[in-house]
Amino acid sequence: xxxxxxxxxxxxxxxxxxxxxxxxxxxxxxxxxxxxxxxxxxxxxxxxxxxxxxxxxxxxxxxxxxxxxxxxxxxxxxxxxxxxxxxxxxxxxxxxxxxxxxxxxxxxxxxxxxxxxxxxxxxxxxxxxxxxxxxxxxxxxxxxxxxxxxxxxxxxxxxxxxxxxxxxxxxxxxxxxxxxxxxxxxxxxxxxxxxxxxxxxxxxxxxxxxxxxxxxxxxxxxxxxxxxxxxxxxxxxxxxxxxxxxxxxxxxxxxxxxxxxxxxxxxxxxxxxxxxxxxxxxxxxxxxxxxxxxxxxxxxxxxxxxxxxxxxxxxxxxxxxxxxxxxxxxxxxxxxxx
Length: 338
Ligand SMILES: *Cc1c(COP(=O)(O)O)cnc(C)c1O
Description:
Oligomer: single chain
Order of helices and strands: EHEHEHEHHEHEHEHEHEHHEH
Bound molecules: pyridoxal-5'-phosphate
């Protein structure tokens, strides 16, 4: 594999299944639909950060770290998977949570991912919305070093070139699996946030000489900003792999029509997408990422604006633990909150 020379620890159940979604397809019309089940990576309810953490945690161990630090929004799936990985490897874990939404809902504040952070023994600190998280991580790492600790900082979302290697491998895995099923993907669609997933996939397909387009449905930024972030990180990932062939900027596809009022804020389309996917496939999406990505996919299929006529692979990036934080959003008569 392209990533063989990089150290990794085994955290994920791999390869994740690639499954057809016939009932969802029938409900929508449109092209054949497959789901790449990265919600099944297995670590404390799974998700996409686990692939990145295989490389990042190996680097932490090799650096002699005694604890890892990371940050995210209150219901960060990345923080939860990092807490679980640290627990499994016997490292300490500190998490800085940005009070992204000014929600007083006790489920949002303490259930879902936050409950799991605590169960895995992570120390959780909350900081006001808008705090510079990278600066807060650096500052906390300095304080720990001063006290004799050996902290290792993992960036928000695990999205640096080393973390993105996890999705270089996922691209290779998808190419192999679709050869086995005989169904070549015409398009991969997924939720794009801190950009490591999309950057890794784009770099991986590029390196494998497989011309599979990847459409990132944005959950926070505008489409041009997200495309720039993805492009930069994809290029850095190729550099790390020692591959010199550059990626053209117009290879990066992003769509920000489904963000709604902002990161983590529910939309009616997300609620409908989560319900439809549960009711047709028995498959659980999440309110912040995969629910909005599916809302986008559904809308593009219905409006016949999907940029492919071939097979569509929806990369399910996980996050269902977050559903329990959004109970009121899905409850009887519950509006789109928090
Ligand atoms: C983090 C996350 C994403 C986005 O992945 P990035 O690599 O940050 O772009 C998508 N879905 C879920 C469930 C996530 O937790």
